[in-house]
């Protein structure tokens, strides 16, 4: 029995059909039936119960199925790595981006990367940082942009933004002309926050709790422009990162430093320590780190 035989067996078990497995593997049904029979004879067990229309695994078949999964997966990883060596610049990347940071940092990076590696395709998933982190952790994404810190036992990461949250209020607000505002003075205000699947949602509530109050949240959104628009309509106040504040329409709002305490906001790129990364994904990480670090140095110089 070799790896090809295991792959045939796994496909029959997955599809519960010899015919469908043969079609999926682009081989004939007699070939796959003979392979399964050979495995059964070699191991001295019956792998499938064929008494019904849909075949099902026997107890012995279930044991082999469970043991075969990591073997087949390891072989697929080996094939993928060897494929990278042969094809180099070809590949596909699954990238997770929080909506509020994607437009600020990544169109330029993605454009430059595409120009350098035109054969690499990229699929972008927009979700809150908490969801992005979870999807990188379970393998649904190759790379994600999240709010740091994360679990450094699970993820590799690099940081590319370190700044604070700013307070935005309507220009007629009682605090509009202050130079800075302590967080505790917002205890009676109406807050407009990002949704719960955004890390900033929990971060702001946690910081307010440290100051002895729970914020009165009247609206939640996944879009920073909607949040700033609600503040501009005098519906409440909001806390947004400095980067985002540079892009909001300032005609009807005031942007004020928040202090005592300041609330830090740190963005980073993460990828899983234990999962295989394709050449394309590894190159995207290195390329992006170079571009973003150069951009940060320019802004701080």
From TrEMBL:
A Pfam family: HTH_1
One GO cellular component term: cytosol
SUPFAM superfamilies referenced in this protein's UniProt entry, alphabetically: Periplasmic binding protein-like II, Winged helix' DNA-binding domain
Domain of life: Bacteria
Molecular function as annotated in GO: DNA binding; DNA-binding transcription factor activity
Record carries keyword Transcription regulation: yes
InterPro entries for this protein: HTH-type_LysR_regulators (IPR050950), LysR_HTH_N (IPR000847), LysR_subst-bd (IPR005119), WH-like_DNA-bd_sf (IPR036388), WH_DNA-bd_sf (IPR036390)
Protein name: LysR family regulatory protein CidR
Organism: Paenibacillus pini JCM 16418
């Amino acid at each position: 029995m070799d790896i090809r035989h295991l792959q045939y067996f796994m496909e029959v078990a997955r599809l519960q059909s010899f015919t469908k497995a043969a079609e999926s593997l682009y081989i004939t049904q007699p070939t796959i039936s003979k392979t399964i029979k050979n495995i059964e004879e070699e191991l001295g067990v019956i792998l499938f119960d064929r008494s019904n229309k849909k075949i099902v695994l026997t107890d012995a078949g279930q044991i082999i199925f469970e043991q075969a999964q990591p073997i087949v997966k390891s072989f697929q990883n080996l094939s993928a790595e060897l494929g990278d060596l042969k094809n180099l610049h070809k590949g596909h990347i699954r990238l997770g981006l929080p909506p509020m940071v994607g437009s600020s940092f990544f169109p330029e990076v993605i454009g430059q990367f595409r120009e350098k590696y035109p054969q690499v395709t990229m699929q972008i998933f927009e979700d809150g940082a908490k969801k992005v982190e979870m999807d990188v952790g379970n393998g649904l994404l190759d790379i994600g942009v999240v709010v740091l810190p994360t679990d450094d036992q699970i993820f590799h990461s690099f940081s590319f933004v370190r700044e604070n949250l700013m307070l935005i209020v309507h220009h007629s607000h009682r605090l509009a002309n202050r130079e800075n505002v302590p967080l505790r003075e917002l205890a009676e205000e109406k807050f407009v926050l990002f949704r719960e699947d955004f890390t900033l949602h929990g971060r702001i509530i946690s910081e307010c709790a440290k100051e002895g109050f729970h914020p009165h949240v009247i609206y939640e959104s996944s879009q920073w422009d909607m949040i700033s628009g609600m503040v501009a309509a005098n519906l409440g106040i909001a806390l947004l990162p400095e980067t985002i504040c540079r892009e909001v329409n300032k005609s009807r709002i005031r942007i004020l430093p928040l202090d005592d305490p300041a609330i830090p906001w740190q963005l980073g790129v993460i990828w899983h320590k234990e999962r295989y990364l394709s050449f394309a994904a590894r190159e995207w990480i290195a390329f992006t780190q170079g571009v973003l670090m150069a951009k940060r140095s320019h802004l701080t110089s």
